[in-house]
Design a protein that fits this description.
- The protein is about 40% helix and about 15% strand.
- It has about 375 residues and is an alpha/beta fold.
- The chain folds into 2 domains: about 230 residues, TIM Barrel (Alpha-Beta Barrel), CATH 3.20.20.70; about 120 residues, no CATH class.
- The strands form 2 sheets. Strands 1-2-3-4-5-6-8-9 form an 8-stranded parallel beta barrel, surrounded by 6 helices. Strands 7-11-10 form a 3-stranded antiparallel beta sheet, with no helix packed on it.
- Strand 2, helix 3 and strand 3 form a beta-alpha-beta unit.
- The longest helix is centred in the C-terminal third of the chain and has 28 residues.
- It is globular, with a radius of gyration of 20 Å.
- It starts with a helix and ends with a helix.
- The relative contact order is 0.15.
Length: about 375
Amino acid sequence: MRTPLSEQLGIEHAVFGFTPFPAVAAAITRAGGLGVLGAVRYGEAEALAKDLDWMDAQCGGLPYGVDVVMPAKKVEGVTVEQVEAMIPEGHRAFVREQLARHGVPELPEGQRGGWRITGWMEEVARSHVDVALEHPIKLLASALGSPPPDVIQRAHEAGVLVAALAGSARHAERHAAAGIDIVVAQGHEAGGHTGEIGTMVLVPEIAAAVDPLPVLAAGGIGTGPQVAAGLALGAQGVWLGSVWLTVAESEMTSPVLRRKLLAAGSGDTVRSRSLTGKPARQLRTEWTEVWDGAESPGTLPMPLQGLLVADALSRIQTYETPELIGTPVGQIVGQMNEVRPVAAVMDELTRGFEQAVARLNHIARKGEQG
């Protein structure tokens, strides 16, 4: 699974693994891919710096990346507190009502929800960029559009490639015009924020639109044959996120959530605005259902929704409330049926890729023979 892009980055396999867990990102890199650590869950830059220091030691000089979330347009002087003040009281009351209905306890006194999505705020995201560029990263990815021009310039000056996710050819063309180096074509099947176009249609559209920029295929990919399909459609690699949620190294995934993921089928996800305010594919739960129900006040725009539900989700995760606990995950969840180490997942991807390519070569040879 080597391509010009994997050669450029010095990785054995053209597999880019996004994960919020440092141990998983480091394991992906050690297994020959490129681990990409999601920074959005880090409220404090110091915590991200600590984990990147740890990854430096674990990766032993092998390449890895960091994924940030920030708006393309710079907004000065807006604090998290000012944004939180915009949240209507009716929405706060709705959240309290849902937690009370399911008997979710308050967090212990003095403990605030650790998973506050302040990473959606530009001031926080910029601190993440500052920290990331102080480490030997090889890739800076942006989950929601192109980063601001000054961030792209800083990354390039540091010798770091910049990637951005796109859900349409139009989005991809904007990324190319902004100076992005790699476009991640993220299809409708993917976990997290997705558009309306399926991976099979999206990847070749984007590959043609931004040629010669390299494209990574994302969405509905979790096996070797699916990797081969992504490359056959014009991608130079694959971007995988969901498959790492149930690996042995994902120790931060709660036991209850892991059991739900292992038992879920490909139809057990839903695109919902309940997490961030933008459509994000996630495990279907009573929490996602109630936000789309008749009694819901409706979701708020980003970043208000994420700030509104952050403490509630921390409580749900802390107390592992079965009916409510969930996570962003793609439709590939239906094939995530056992806990395996990252290295075993990578071995299966490479073997399956080789078998798929051999099968296609056999078909092609038979066709040539008439």
